[in-house]
Amino acid sequence: MSEGKVYNLLITRGIDPDNQYEFYKERIDSQRDFLYNEYNTIENELTEELFEKVDVVVLLFGLFNDNKELFKELIAKSKQYNVPLLLIRFFGMEYVLKELEEIFDAVVGWNPHCIVDAIETLVDGEDWVKPCDISEEE
Predict the structure, then answer these.
(1) pTM for the whole thing?
(2) Strand pairing partners for 88?
(3) How do beta strands 6-11 and 56-60 pair?
């Protein structure tokens, strides 16, 4: 992990019947050496100023069906402001549609090490090539 680096993450929040956000927070917070500032879609307006601060936009696929307009806006603005997109698959789901996967810079499951690795890789400007998420233990 990048020593001392603090990552600025914009995390999806919205209608969340399966409590994906809290599950994500438990996973990411379990990584003691990973430091981050959270911006989320409930407490922050999706302005240019916000996107200038953000290192990675983290979309929780489990929120997609109930928050489609929010996802569309986040995807469009992340592309507009050149902020990498990380998709966290729905818990237990191994794959997402190819068309959807192509939109994102990285797609991972719930393994906290994979999430952190993807964030660090995207912030370092590298392409995500590791299939860390396919064989992980949930």
Answers:
(1) 0.87
(2) 60, 108
(3) parallel
